[in-house]
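thought: fold this chain, then report.
action: predict
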Amino acid sequence: MVNESPDAPPRPRLRPTRRGRLVLLIGAVLVVAAAVLVPLLLLGSEEKREQPRFVVIPEGWRASQVYAAADKALGLAPGSTEKAVPTAELPLPAAADGNPEGYLFPATYPVDDETTPESLLRYMVKTAAKRFGADPITAGAQRNSVSVYQTVSIAAIVQAEADTVSDMGKVARVIFNRLAQDMALQMDSTLNYALKRSTLDTTSGDTEIDSPYNSYERKGLPPTPIGNPGEQAMQAAISPPPGPWLYFVTVGPGDTRFTDSYDEQLTNVEEFNRNRRTVTTD
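observation:
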């Protein structure tokens, strides 16, 4: 959610919310429905195994979660995959500066005994580069006057913030509208990324942290994507529907309200807070 009027006093801040279903699912190897099955190619040995192992990367996972899942799938010590990043020769855009966040494409990847962290990471990034480098993505980025890398950053926020797939386009439109009006994005998802957590409850103190990912204090997009978006979020980022919305909040499951009225947003946020208090005390 985003909340403040451009002319509103800086305090008290309203707490933006994220989609209720965004929970860190480290090790959730059964989340196959939302993942894309990637063919077994170039992951070490070309020999097909009768019962290959799989590592599932759900949409929206952060790089840290991907690394942990890869370590587990490959039977390696924690931290092994992350340490392999600098030497993996990943085909990342120059704007990424060697950081694969946003380009570890969500999919189901078969692995075998000869798969290495480097080969697995390269295949994830190659898959992302192929999907994100497609003509509709590059054309959409140009139409929106942003780079493909910035589009991935927008899609990552959309993936984290949208309560449902149908909300994704409107969330993307809020982002573009706020950028166009030189307003801070004020997204909880960026704070959660900075604080390495996932929560619906953001405090006033959280909004004051010194971080380039603090989208309350700093205008513009965060310096990198805050997760690895899927194709639906990317589609929302390149083709958001028209609309005047500047604010949104998910007051309950499946009930996200978008508005360009600050007063209406105040009412919606109060309902969100009441619902949260009820959940906390139950």
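thought: worth noting. Confidence is low (pLDDT under 50) at residues 5-36.
final: tokens above.
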